[in-house]
C-alpha cells in the first residue's frame, strides 16, 4: 500500500515556489484578463480541467489561483533540462502516456481525498484545438466524488517572453474559470476532506459508455468557454447535452 498523501509535507515548498512563479510570470508574461476565480472553492477537493496549448499553462493557473494545485504531467517532463526540476520540487503527478497508469490514478485519488486541487488536461497532451478527450478525468471524478471546474486558457503560446518583444505586442494571456459541477453518477465526497484514499466512500462504478458520455458533456462545457478556433471536435455546441451534469452553483 502506498504511503498516504499528506498536504503539510509538500505545502511549504510549494508556497516558496509559488512566490517565484509570481515574480517570473509578472516579468515575462503579459496577462490580459483572469475571469471567474471566485468560482474556485477555497477548500476541499476539486478537479480543475482545461485545454492545454502551451507549456506554461499550469504555471499561469498556479499564478492566478488563491490555492495551490497539483498538475498532472507526462513523466518525460521530469527529464527536461533545467525546468525538469520544477515538477520534482512541486511533486507534480507524473503520468505514463499510452497506458492505463494505475499509479497516477491512485495518486490523483489520494490527493483529492486530502482535499487538494488536481489539474488535468483531458487530451493528455498540448494541442491548439481539441482532437480527442480521454475518459481518465471522468473515471477519477466518478471514483472520488470530487466536483469539477473547467478553465479555458488562451494566449499562453509564445510566453514567457521578454517585455517589449514582438510577442508582448500581441494579445496576452486570458484565463476563464467556469462554474463547478459534479457528475450525477458514481461517487459522493466524504464528509471530511483530509482523508486517505482508502476512506473515500464510493457509491458506484461507471461503465465505459457512461464514462465516455460524462467526458463528452464536460468537454462541451469547456468548449463553450473557448473561442471557436480552439474547440476542435467539440465545435458543434448543438450536440452538447448535460444529462450527467449536476451544477453546484
Features:
249 residues; alpha/beta; two-stranded antiparallel ribbon; globular; 7-stranded mixed sheet; Glycerol-3-phosphate (1)-acyltransferase; single chain
Descriptive account of the structure:
With about 250 residues, the protein is of the alpha/beta class. The chain has one domain (about 5-245): Glycerol-3-phosphate (1)-acyltransferase (3-Layer(aba) Sandwich), CATH 3.40.1130. About 30% of the residues lie in helices and about 15% in strands. The protein is built from 7 helices and 9 strands; from the N terminus they run αββαβαβαβαβαββαβ. Strands 1-7-6-2-5-3-4 form a 7-stranded mixed β-sheet, with helices on both faces. Strand 3 (about 70-75), helix 3 and strand 4 (about 95) form a beta-alpha-beta unit. Mean pLDDT is about 90; it is low at about 185-205.
Order of helices and strands: HEEHEHEHEHEHEEHE
| Beta content | 15-25%
Largest sheet: 7 strands, mixed
Report the span from N to C terminus: 37 Å
CATH topology name, in short, is Glycerol-3-phosphate (1)-acyltransferase
Parts with pLDDT < 50 across at least 5 consecutive residues: 187-204
Q: Helix count?
A: 7
Strand order of the largest sheet: 1-7-6-2-5-3-4
What Rg, in angstroms, do the CA atoms define?
A: 17 Å
Q: Give average pLDDT, whole number.
A: 89
Write the CATH architecture name.
Answer: 3-Layer(aba) Sandwich
Number of strands: 9
Instruction: Count structural domains.
Output: 1
Helix amount, in percent?
A: 25-40%
Amino acid at each position: 500500500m502506498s504511503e498516504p498523501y499528506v498536504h503539510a509535507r509538500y505545502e511549504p515548498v510549494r508556497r516558496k515556489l509559488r512566490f517565484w512563479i509570481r515574480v517570473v510570470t509578472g516579468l515575462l508574461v503579459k496577462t490580459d484578463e483572469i475571469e471567474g476565480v471566485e468560482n474556485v472553492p477555497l477548500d476541499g477537493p476539486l478537479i480543475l480541467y482545461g485545454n492545454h496549448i502551451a507549456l506554461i499553462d499550469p504555471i499561469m493557473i498556479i499564478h492566478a489561483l488563491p490555492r495551490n494545485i497539483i498538475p498532472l504531467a507526462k513523466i518525460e517532463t521530469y527529464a527536461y533540462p533545467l525546468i525538469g526540476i520544477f515538477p520534482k520540487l512541486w511533486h507534480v503527478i507524473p503520468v505514463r502516456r499510452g497506458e492505463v497508469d494505475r499509479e497516477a490514478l491512485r495518486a490523483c485519488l489520494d490527493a483529492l481525498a486530502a482535499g487538494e486541487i488536481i489539474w488535468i488536461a483531458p487530451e493528455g497532451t498540448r494541442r491548439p484545438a481539441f482532437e480527442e478527450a480521454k475518459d481518465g478525468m471522468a473515471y477519477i471524478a466518478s471514483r472520488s466524488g470530487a466536483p469539477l471546474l473547467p478553465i479555458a486558457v488562451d494566449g499562453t503560446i509564445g510566453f514567457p517572453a521578454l517585455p517589449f518583444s514582438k510577442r508582448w505586442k500581441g494579445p496576452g494571456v486570458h484565463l476563464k474559470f467556469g462554474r463547478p459541477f459534479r457528475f450525477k453518477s458514481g461517487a459522493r465526497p466524504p464528509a471530511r476532506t483530509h482523508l486517505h484514499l482508502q476512506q473515500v466512500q464510493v457509491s458506484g462504478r461507471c461503465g465505459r459508455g457512461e464514462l465516455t458520455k460524462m467526458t463528452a458533456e464536460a468537454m462541451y462545457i469547456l468548449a463553450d468557454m473557448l473561442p471557436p478556433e480552439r474547440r476542435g471536435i467539440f465545435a458543434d455546441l448543438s450536440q452538447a447535452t448535460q444529462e450527467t451534469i449536476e451544477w453546484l452553483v
